[in-house]
Design goal:
By secondary structure, the chain is of the alpha+beta class. 53% of the residues lie in helices and 13% in strands.
Length: 372
């Protein structure tokens, strides 16, 4: 066992639990399932008031931003706790894209222009998201960069960009480097996503001016690091989602009666729920390991993240499917929020790399050749 693996800390600190309590209380007040469903049906799922309170009131937007740039100077562990709670509420806020992916990209640029954006992001004054497909995976080739037609005038199209409709600034990868492009200068065409709480859009630039943040090599390295962090912390969102599904399912089968008995007392359902509990407990260990490996810059972080994603994606989908099935008829209705969780789980299983992609990474890291 390597030293980095031996020192993994899977427990939550008192500070992390206090942060969890604050975020959970905020979401309980402003992100009830009926509210999320109503916003999703409206076609405008993002809640600006909720975002302002989460980003600047609690300070969650700046968790990964250093204190010298106006952030909290916290670590991936604290950001993982926030994502657990956001996953538990399927909250329609651009946290994963704006406060994890975009923040990590800007930190990797290490330029005055990037620092200015980080200050605005940490203060909750701007929402900044990367113009990358949500399915872009760590360890996979980056998409074809957009073309700089001269002087930072960018031309090209990027599909399936998450939270672009909520963004003030887009981080665009071009052939001459990374650029910050004001979102109003881009043409956004909303697409119908499976997960209505995380909208997708096609971003088109036609000679749109941008501010250069980094050269091509630095930009590619920054994006690669951000994708690794994003995939690792996405596991925490999937964990929170799975925990909600398990809790709600247990509560339902305890209260629902058939043949004058709670349906939860039936042996077959006990077995299914016990298996699901074990799956969620294992997912918690995998997600916490990924967050801790990222926080400590462990050399094993790429492997730990791949393991977490390969496992947590499946657990979140299974938990949501079991929640739908064991709720019976009510679980199949639009009024019950479980379908939001199932759709988020399915969408998350494709975001930042599929299970198959991450299993392939695990095999590569462990030097296990694929079957001939």
């Amino acid at each position: 066992m390597t030293a980095s693996r031996a020192s993994l800390d899977l427990l939550y600190s008192d500070t992390e639990e206090e942060l969890r309590s604050a975020v959970r209380a905020l979401l309980a007040d402003h992100c009830a399932p009926a509210t999320v469903l109503a916003r999703a049906e409206s076609g405008r799922p993002h809640d600006p008031a909720l975002w302002r309170t989460l980003a600047s009131g609690i300070g969650a937007a700046g968790l990964l931003v250093p204190e010298k740039l106006g952030g909290a100077g916290a670590s991936h562990r604290e950001a993982a706790v926030v994502l657990e709670e956001l996953g538990r509420a399927v909250a329609p806020v651009p946290y994963l894209t704006g406060c994890v992916l975009a923040t990590e990209i800007l930190l990797g640029c290490d330029t005055p222009e990037a620092a200015d954006l980080l200050r605005a992001l940490a203060a909750g004054q701007q929402v900044c998201v990367p113009a990358l497909p949500l399915t872009q995976a760590p360890g996979a080739p980056l998409p074809q960069p957009l073309r700089d037609t001269g002087g930072g005038a960018l031309t090209g199209t990027v599909t399936s960009v998450a939270d672009a409709t909520a963004a003030d600034v887009l981080l665009v990868l071009a052939d001459t480097g990374l650029y910050a492009v004001p979102a109003p200068g881009a043409r956004l065409a909303a697409t119908v996503p499976l997960d209505l709480t995380r909208p997708l859009a096609t971003v088109t630039l036609d000679g749109t001016p941008g501010t250069r943040l980094a050269d091509p090599a630095t930009a590619r390295a920054a994006v690669a690091g951000a994708l690794l962090s994003g995939a690792g912390l996405l596991a925490s969102e999937q964990l929170g989602l799975a925990e909600w599904c398990l809790t709600e399912t247990v509560a339902h089968v305890r209260g629902r009666h058939q043949f004058n008995r709670p349906v939860g007392s039936f042996q077959a359902l006990k077995h299914r729920l016990a298996r699901l509990w074990l799956d969620v407990a294992s997912a918690r260990a995998a997600a916490r390991a990924a967050a801790d490996a990222l926080a400590t810059a462990s050399p094993d972080a790429p492997l730990t993240v791949a393991v977490a994603q390969a496992y947590c994606s499946g657990v979140a989908v299974r938990a949501a499917e079991e929640c739908v099935q064991l709720h019976g008829g009510i679980g199949m209705t639009w009024e019950h929020p479980v379908h939001l969780y199932l759709k988020r789980a399915k969408a998350d299983s494709l975001a930042l790399g599929t299970t198959g992609h991450h299993l392939g990474l695990v095999a590569d890291f462990a030097e296990l050749p694929a079957p001939a």
